[in-house]
Structure formats: structure tokens, C-alpha cells
């Protein structure tokens, strides 16, 4: 059974950092493209970042470029999202998901078959 469990969210002040984890089971995350999404209250879910199989390529939405870093650890079967210089507009529930392939055009919620429970990130001003 494919399962993704997000963790690492919390409350942080503007300018702070958090590292989110996406623990995979039932499949090998390193063989897949994994994306991070977020959904703020009253807004649609949006793609934030993705990493290709074996971490060869990474992509970031303009809103997080230069502040977020996606990485994967094959030994832990986990994908991480390091978030630095956090802003109040980063407040959202963050989700990870398996994508059908790599790239901006494939980092879309409509292409995701399975969602985890997400992890809440709240950035106070």
C-alpha cells in the first residue's frame, strides 16, 4: 500500500525555518518524482516544489525559489522540504505526493492520486 506521511510543521516567526518530512512506504521514493504542495485557507492547493527520481532535477515555484530546498534521502525513503526565511504568506497545510513525472506542468494537484494528511505550517508576523 502506497503511503505518504508528512511531518515537521509548526508555528514559527517570520524569518524562521522549518524542515518538512515526507516519509514514504509501500514504494521507493527515490524511484519516483515527489512533489510538495500547499493549501492556504480559502485558496486552492498549489505546487511548491518537486524532485525527480534519484534527485537529479529539482523545481521550485517562483514564490519559494531561493528560500526552500527539496531533497531526498534514499536510506530513509524520505523527501524533505527545508524552508528558510519563512513569510506569513507561507502559512498553509503542506502535502507531499507522487507525481506522474517531473516538471512544472506536472506539478498539479489534479494529477495526484493519493494525498496524505498534510502538516500545518503557520508563520506569524
Account of the 3D structure:
- This protein is mainly β.
- It has strands at residues 3-7, 10-13, 18-25, 33-39, 46-51, 58-60, 68-73, 78-83, 92-99, 119-124.
- The strands form two sheets. Strands 2-10-9-4-5-6 form a six-stranded mixed β-sheet, with no helix packed on it. A four-stranded antiparallel β-sheet has the order 1-3-8-7, with no helix packed on it.
- The radius of gyration is 13 Å and the shape is globular.
- The chain starts with a strand and ends with a strand.
- The relative contact order is 0.31.
- The model has no long low-confidence stretch (mean pLDDT 96).
Report a brief summary of the structure.
Helices cover 0% and strands 47% of the residues. With 125 residues, the chain is mainly β. The mean pLDDT is 96.
Structural class given helices, strands, pairing? mainly beta
Distance between the termini: 40 Å
Main beta sheet: 6 strands, mixed
**Principal-axes shape call:** globular
Q: Strand share of the residues?
A: over 45%
- Low-confidence spans: none
Biggest sheet strand line-up: 2-10-9-4-5-6
What's the Cα radius of gyration?
13 Å
N-to-C series of helices and strands: EEEEEEEEEE
Assembly annotation: single chain
Instruction: Please tell me the overall pLDDT.
Output: 96
Count helical runs. Answer: 0
Helix % is: under 10%
Total strand count, please? 10
Amino acid at each position: 500500500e502506497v503511503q505518504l506521511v508528512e511531518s515537521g510543521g509548526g508555528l514559527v516567526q517570520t524569518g524562521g525555518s522549518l524542515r518538512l518530512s515526507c516519509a514514504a512506504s509501500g514504494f521507493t521514493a527515490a524511484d519516483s518524482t515527489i512533489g510538495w504542495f500547499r493549501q492556504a485557507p480559502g485558496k486552492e492547493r498549489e505546487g511548491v516544489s518537486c524532485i525527480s527520481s534519484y534527485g537529479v532535477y529539482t523545481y521550485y515555484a517562483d514564490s519559494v525559489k531561493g528560500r526552500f530546498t527539496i531533497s531526498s534521502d534514499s536510506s530513509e525513503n524520505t523527501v524533505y522540504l527545508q524552508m528558510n526565511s519563512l513569510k506569513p504568506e507561507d502559512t498553509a497545510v503542506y502535502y507531499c505526493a507522487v507525481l506522474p513525472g517531473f516538471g512544472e506542468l506536472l506539478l498539479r494537484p489534479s494529477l495526484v492520486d493519493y494525498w496524505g494528511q498534510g502538516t500545518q505550517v503557520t508563520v506569524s508576523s
